[in-house]
C-alpha cells in the first residue's frame, strides 16, 4: 500500500540525504560539545520520569502524555543551556554579535515607481564585517598561527597537478580582512571562461543598482493603426503559460488587447522594435547552442524547447519569433494582426501597455547560478547603456572595464571582449576575481550583494549541483568556468576554523576537462577542510 502523504518525502529523499551528509560533521561537533550538559540534564530528568504514573494497561494517550512531559522538560533544559535569552526570544550572544556587526544598508535604492508599477526590491543587508584593502599582499614575515599548516604547503602540491595544464594562477584572500593569504600568478591574465560573469555582474549592479528593472512595452499609433512591440532588453521575458515570476509576453498581450478594445480597435498592423541594441547580434563564436543572437527582444532566450538553462538549439531570429508569439496571444484575445515586421524610431512613442522584469538582483542570481550566457550578454549591453557606451559587444566590454575601474578594482593584465566569457580572447586575473568577491561583501557596497547570493552552492545548486559529493558540500560557493582547454573556479569557502575565504583558480592548457574539474574541486575542498595559516 502506498500512502499518498509519503510521496513528497520520497521524492525529496536524495536532497535530504545530501543535506544530511553536508551537516553531519557540524552536528557531530555540536553534540560532542553539548554531551556533558546533556548528561547532567538526563540525570535531572530521570527522577521525574520515575514518578510518572504507571497504569497496568497504559493507553496510547497515556504513553504520549508521559513522553510529551519528558520531552518538554528535556527541551526546556536544552534551551536553557543554549541561552541566555533576552525578552524578545533572541539569544543574547546572537543579539550582541548582530549589534557588533551592524552596518548601514538594506534600504531601497531609488524612489518607488509610478502608481501601479512594482516597488523597488529592498537590497540585502551586509553579510561581512568591514574589509581592508581588497587584496593586500600577505606579510611574508608573518608566521601562521601556532600549529597551523602553512597554506602554501597545502595548495602548492594540488595546483601542481598535471590535470591543470601548463599554466595556472591562484589567489586566496581572507574576506574579513582583505589580506591575501596565498598567491601564484596573481596578476597573470588568463582566459577566464564563465568566471567573466562575476565581472559582468558587479559592473551591472554598480551601474544600474540591484533594484533596476527592464521594461517590454507596446506603442500604438491610432492614425495608422500600427501596434509596435518594443524590446527593452529583458533577457528573462517568457512566453510560457507559467511565467514563474518573470515578465510575461502573454500578460503584455492581454493588457494590450484590453487597451485596444477600450478604443474600439480590433485589428492592427503589428511591428516590432529592437533598436535599443546596436552592432552585431551574433557572438564571435558564431551560431552556438550556448547563446542566442543578442537582441533587445526575445522570449525564453530563443530556445527551441521548454528548457530554461543549458545548451539547446536557438531560433534564427529571436525578435521575430517573439513577435509571432505575441501576435498569436493577441489573436487569442480577439485582436487580429498582420504578420509582424521590423520597425524603428518608436523610442519616443508613448507606452500603451507594459510588463517589467524582476529586479536586477534576481537576474544576476539566475545568471550566476545557471551560468546563463544570454543574461550575461544582455547585462553587458545594459551596463553599456547606463555608462554612455553603445549597446554592443564592444561597448559592453568597455563599460564593464570602466565600472570595475570606478570601484577601484585591479585591472592589470585584464582584457574584456564580451560579458559571458565565451570569447577566448578575454583575459582576467586571479587577483581581480578575488577582489570582486571581496568588494561584493563590503559593507559600503550592499548593492553588490546579489553576486554572492547567486553563486552556485557545492552539491546543491546550479553548475555545482553534481559536484562536491564529499567533504565541502554546502561550504564552497563558486562560479565555474569551462572552455576547451580552460577550467576555472572562483568563489567563497568557509574553512575549518570558520573563516570566510575568497579564492580564484584559473588553469589553461588542460587536456581532460573532467580531470581538471576534479583537481580544482580538490583544491577548493582543501581550503574547506584546513585551518591553515
Automatic annotation (TrEMBL):
<feature type="compositionally biased region" description="Low complexity">
    <location>
        <begin position="109"/>
        <end position="118"/>
    </location>
</feature>
<protein>
    <submittedName>
        <fullName>D-alanyl-D-alanine carboxypeptidase/D-alanyl-D-alanine-endopeptidase</fullName>
        <ecNumber>3.4.16.4</ecNumber>
    </submittedName>
</protein>
<keyword id="KW-0645">Protease</keyword>
<dbReference type="InterPro" id="IPR012338">
    <property type="entry name" value="Beta-lactam/transpept-like"/>
</dbReference>
<dbReference type="GO" id="GO:0006508">
    <property type="term" value="P:proteolysis"/>
</dbReference>
<dbReference type="GO" id="GO:0000270">
    <property type="term" value="P:peptidoglycan metabolic process"/>
</dbReference>
<comment type="similarity">
    <text>Belongs to the peptidase S13 family.</text>
</comment>
<dbReference type="InterPro" id="IPR000667">
    <property type="entry name" value="Peptidase_S13"/>
</dbReference>
<dbReference type="GO" id="GO:0009002">
    <property type="term" value="F:serine-type D-Ala-D-Ala carboxypeptidase activity"/>
</dbReference>
<keyword id="KW-0121">Carboxypeptidase</keyword>
<dbReference type="Pfam" id="PF02113">
    <property type="entry name" value="Peptidase_S13"/>
</dbReference>
<keyword id="KW-0378">Hydrolase</keyword>
<feature type="region of interest" description="Disordered">
    <location>
        <begin position="105"/>
        <end position="149"/>
    </location>
</feature>
Amino acid at each position: 500500500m502506498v500512502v499518498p502523504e509519503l510521496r513528497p518525502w520520497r521524492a525529496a529523499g536524495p536532497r535530504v540525504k545530501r543535506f544530511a551528509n553536508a551537516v553531519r560533521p557540524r552536528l557531530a561537533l555540536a553534540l560532542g560539545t553539548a554531551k556533558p550538559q546533556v548528561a547532567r540534564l538526563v540525570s535531572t530528568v530521570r527522577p521525574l520520569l520515575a514518578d510518572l504514573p504507571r497504569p497496568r494497561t497504559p493507553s496510547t494517550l497515556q504513553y504520549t502524555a508521559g513522553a510529551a512531559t519528558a520531552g518538554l522538560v528535556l527541551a526546556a533544559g536544552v534551551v536553557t543551556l543554549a541561552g541566555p535569552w533576552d525578552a524578545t526570544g533572541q539569544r543574547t550572544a546572537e543579539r550582541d554579535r548582530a549589534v557588533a556587526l551592524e552596518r548601514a544598508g538594506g534600504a531601497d535604492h531609488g524612489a518607488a515607481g509610478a502608481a501601479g508599477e512594482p516597488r523597488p526590491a529592498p537590497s540585502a543587508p551586509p553579510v561581512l564585517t568591514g574589509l581592508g584593502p581588497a587584496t593586500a599582499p600577505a606579510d611574508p614575515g608573518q608566521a601562521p598561527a601556532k600549529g597551523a599548516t602553512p597554506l602554501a604547503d597545502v595548495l602548492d602540491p594540488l595546483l601542481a597537478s598535471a590535470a591543470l595544464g601548463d599554466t595556472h594562477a591562484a589567489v586566496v584572500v581572507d574576506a574579513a580582512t582583505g589580506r591575501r593569504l596565498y598567491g601564484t600568478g596573481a596578476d597573470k591574465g588568463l582566459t577566464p571562461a564563465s568566471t567573466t560573469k562575476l565581472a559582468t555582474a558587479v559592473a551591472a549592479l554598480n551601474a544600474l543598482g540591484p533594484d533596476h528593472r527592464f521594461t517590454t512595452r507596446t506603442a500604438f499609433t491610432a492614425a495608422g493603426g500600427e501596434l509596435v512591440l518594443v524590446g527593452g532588453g529583458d533577457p528573462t521575458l517568457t512566453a510560457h503559460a507559467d511565467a514563474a515570476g518573470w515578465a510575461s509576453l502573454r500578460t503584455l498581450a492581454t493588457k494590450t488587447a484590453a487597451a485596444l478594445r477600450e478604443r474600439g480597435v480590433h485589428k492592427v498592423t503589428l511591428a516590432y522594435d529592437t533598436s535599443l541594441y546596436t552592432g552585431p547580434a551574433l557572438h564571435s563564436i558564431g551560431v552556438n547552442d550556448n547563446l542566442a543572437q543578442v537582441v533587445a527582444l526575445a522570449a525564453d532566450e530563443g530556445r527551441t524547447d521548454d528548457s530554461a538553462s543549458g545548451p539547446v538549439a536557438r531560433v534564427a531570429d529571436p525578435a521575430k519569433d517573439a513577435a509571432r508569439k505575441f501576435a498569436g496571444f493577441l489573436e487569442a484575445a480577439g485582436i487580429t494582426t498582420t504578420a509582424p515586421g521590423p520597425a524603428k524610431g518608436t523610442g519616443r512613442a508613448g507606452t500603451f501597455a507594459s510588463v517589467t522584469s524582476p529586479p536586477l538582483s534576481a537576474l544576476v542570481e539566475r545568471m550566476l547560478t545557471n551560468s546563463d550566457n544570454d543574461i550575461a550578454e544582455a547585462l553587458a549591453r545594459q551596463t553599456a547603456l547606463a555608462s554612455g557606451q553603445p549597446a554592443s559587444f564592444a561597448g559592453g566590454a568597455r563599460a564593464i572595464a570602466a565600472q570595475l575601474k570606478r570601484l577601484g578594482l585591479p585591472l592589470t593584465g585584464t582584457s574584456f571582449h564580451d560579458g559571458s566569457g565565451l570569447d577566448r580572447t578575454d583575459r582576467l586575473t586571479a587577483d581581480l576575481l578575488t577582489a570582486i568577491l571581496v568588494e561584493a561583501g563590503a559593507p559600503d557596497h550592499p548593492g553588490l550583494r546579489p553576486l554572492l547570493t547567486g553563486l552556485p552552492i557545492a552539491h546543491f545548486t546550479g553548475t555545482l549541483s553534481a559536484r562536491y559529493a564529499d567533504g565541502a558540500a554546502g561550504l564552497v560557493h563558486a562560479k565555474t568556468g569551462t572552455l576547451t582547454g580552460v577550467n576555472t573556479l572562483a568563489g567563497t569557502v568557509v574553512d575549518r576554523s570558520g573563516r570566510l575565504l575568497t579564492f580564484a583558480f584559473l588553469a589553461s592548457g588542460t587536456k581532460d576537462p573532467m580531470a581538471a574539474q576534479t583537481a580544482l574541486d580538490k583544491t577548493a575542498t582543501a581550503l574547506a577542510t584546513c585551518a591553515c595559516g
